[in-house]
Amino acid sequence: MRILGIESSCDETAAAVVEDGAAVLSSVVASQMATHGKYGGVVPELASREHLRAIVPVVREALEIAGTGLEGLAAVAATSGPGLVGSLLVGLTYAKSLCYARGLPLIAVNHIEGHIHAVLLEARRAGGEVPLPALALVVSGGHTHLFEIDPAFRYRLLGRTRDDAAGEAFDKVAKLLGFPYPGGPIVDQLAPHGNPRAVRFTFAKMKGNAADFSFSGLKTAVLRWVEARDMAEEIAARRLLARGAAPSLEDWLAVTPQATRDLLASFQHAVIVELLTRAAASAEAVAAQALIVSGGVASNRGLRAAAAAARLPYPVFFPTPGLSTDNAAMIAAAAFPKFARGEFASFDIRADAGLRLA
Ligand code: KG4
Ligand code: ZN
Which residue's alpha carbon is at the smallest distance from atom 21 of ligand 1? Predict the structure, then answer.
C-alpha cells in the first residue's frame, strides 16, 4: 500500500513514497535555503514561486526513485496546514489535480501531525512501536507545542509557545549576531565551543498554563547583550562570510570570538533546559509512557545529549536528522492510519494557514 506524500508548507518542496506507513521508498526534499538565506528569513512570495518551480520535478523524482508510477499508488497525501498559505496551496492543489486525474483518494495531513509521525514511522521501521500514551514535543521554526497522544491516536494540546517558536528564537538570535538563515544548525555547531554557563538567561514566570513556553525574552536579552558591546566588526565579518559559499565550522569559529561563543552556548543551553523541563513536567502529568521530540530543532545535538543525560523514566524518541526537518515521508506516514480509517478529503478542502491539531 503505497502513499505519495507532498509537503510544501514553508520553504521546502518535498515528495516521498512510503509503503505501509513504514518503508520509505523515496524522500526528495528541494530546499529553498539559497533563495531565502540572504533575506535572513523566509519570504512568503518567493517561497510560493519556488514551490511552483519545484513541485513537478520533485514529485516526478520521488516516483522514479520509488520505482512506481501514479498507477502504483493507493492515495496521495498533502499538507493542508499550518504554514504559509501560498506555499501550502501549491502542494495541495497539485495533489488534488493528481487525484482528480487518476481517480485516487486525497488525504489531508496536518504538518504538526506529520512531524510526530516521522518518529512513529522510524519506530515501526525498526520493528517496534512507540508506547502510548506518549508526550510529543514538536519544536521547529514555526511551532513549539506539547501534545498528549492517547492510545487511539487522538491529540490533546497541553502547551504551546505564547510568542516565538524555539527554532525562530535560534534563527532570530543568529541573525542578530550576523549569521545567515537558518541559524539553528550554526548555533548547534558553535555551542560546544563556548561555556553554557557564562551568560545567565531568565524566563518570565508563566501566568495561566504552566506548560506554555515563551522564547521572545531570550532574543531581547541577546539584543541588549549586543548593544552593550562593540560588536560591529565581528558581525560585519560574519555577514561577509555568509555571502560566500557554504562556510565551514572552522570559518565560523575564525570570526566568532570566545565571548560570542559563550553567549551562543548559554543561549542554546537555556532553550534546551526550558524545553526539557516543561516537557518532562507534562509527561509526568499525563503518565506518558514515552517522550517524542520532533521538528527541525529536534536535530539539535545539545538537545539530544541533554535528553539522554536527563535519565527520564520513559524512553525518548528522536527522528534521525533527515526526518527531523521538513520532509514528505512524514506526511505519507501520517496519512497511512487515515487511509486505513477511510478519512479522505474532498476536492474543495482549502489550505489553512492556522490549522490546529487536536
Ligand atoms: O521543521 P522545520 O524544517 O520547519 C518548520 O516547520 O519550521 O524546522 C526548521 C527550524 C529552523 O528554525 C531551524 O533553525 C531549526 O529548525 N533547526 C535547528 C537545527 N536544525 C534546524 N535548531 C537548532 N539546532 C539545529 N541543529
Ligand atoms: Zn516543520
Answer: 296
